[in-house]
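Today's session is about reading a structure prediction critically. Students often jump straight to the picture, but the first step is always the sequence itself: look for stretches that repeat, for charged clusters, for runs of hydrophobic residues. Only then move on to the predicted structure, which in these notes is written as discrete structure tokens rather than atom positions. Here is the chain we will use throughout the hour.
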Amino acid sequence: MRRGWVIVVGTLLIAACGGDAPPSPARTPTPLDHATTGTIAGEVRVDGAVPPMAEIRFAGFPECAAQHQGPAYAGDMLVKDGKVAGAFVWVKDGLGDRVFAIPTEPVEIDQTGCLYQPRVVGARVGQTIRFVNGDPLLHNVHGTPKASRAWNVSLARRGASREIRLDHPEVMVSVRCDLHPWMQAWIGVVDHPYFAVTGPDGAFALEDVPPGDYTVAVWHERLGTREARVTVPPRGRATAGFTYAASQ
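Below is the predicted structure for this chain, in token form.
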């Protein structure tokens, strides 16, 4: 019964909204004086006892469970020694009407082991986002942005891929797989290059930032959002540290 249901759903998803993205419109970047730019750097931390990470239950999906040795975890609370990985940091305000070129290289998100890898990414408005199926089974990619058009496409076999582009900034865009309800990814979409996803050391660095006053923000899927005001001096460095309370 479940196999038949998957085939029906897969057939319907091929005709669902979304699909390969059209080319991005050309834009003229605002000139940037690299001799005066600086850096915004810092780290994201959490104080206190850290909540446990969600364990994934593969009940009813042996093809997914077989790809993992031992327990599998969602990756929604990656903390070591108080340092938070998987937090999205970006310049929220202060860039004015500056225009930046759209990168030609795509952001890639794989579906492997019945998980999205990576779970949290950043992308630019108009940049290609490529979804790849690295598993030998059917997945779909269901994105539900609020500012751009939603999509829902099928990736029926290993190696299949689809590309989309998002037309408007949005932090964050949720992406799921309807066939495997635990599969979750998040995309932070901004219209400039000043963003980062923290690694295991909880650190981030936003390079080549024009001098000025900025609001820097951080998002974490379980810990929420924080903001800080910083001033980047010419050829200088500004620090933005964020600390969550573990009880949140």
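Discussion point for the tutorial: Confidence is low (pLDDT under 50) at residues 1-19.
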